[in-house]
Amino acid sequence: MWRVLFLALMTGVAAWGLADSARAQTAQPAPKAAPKPPAPAPAPAPAAKSAAKPESKPAAPAAAIAGGAEPTLIGQFGTWGAYSATPNGKKVCFALAKPSSSKTNPPNRPRDPAYAFVSTRPAEKVNNEVSVMIGYALKPGSESTVEVGGAAFAMYTQGDGLWIKNAAEEERMVEAMRKSADLVVKGTSAKGTETTDTFSLKGLAQALDRIAQDCKR
Question: Do the Cβ atoms of 180 and 155 come closer than 8 Å?
């Protein structure tokens, strides 16, 4: 059930988050009407984790994707948007950003946009879970890495989704993200293309503080 919900929700997040994140990175004012990306669903067991590819426009209303909930932008901090939603009566909050730069090897290989999420789901006792939707089908069985604050963290993959391999390291990774300038994500596509995405972490600490306030346990 969560696998299906996650696929739907990540599609909606990407669709709505694309326009909002693009506005943030080009220093445009936040829109008067808040974008409505659905909140990321919880990451299931490794064998069941995946993420849907983003689209330039939403394929379905965000409210329908979120099971009747309408996610709301509660703050824009640098390149990171803070959102909240209440799917199925359970409050969830998350921060979302897209890369400040992306490279492929061989160069200029086509791919969908990438997104980074940090989500909190009080009802499930999940706090600051990091995930990345990398924008292409990853090489089956491959591992990706996230580099932040001089440390490298192994990420396990399925579909085009990444989650930290060792959950015990997640708190340390989030703390490093709060204090560092950039997050670098490296991966290999099913076709052998190597990618490097750099996410600016400007504003992430403030976005996390905001969702912590909005999603108090």
Answer: no
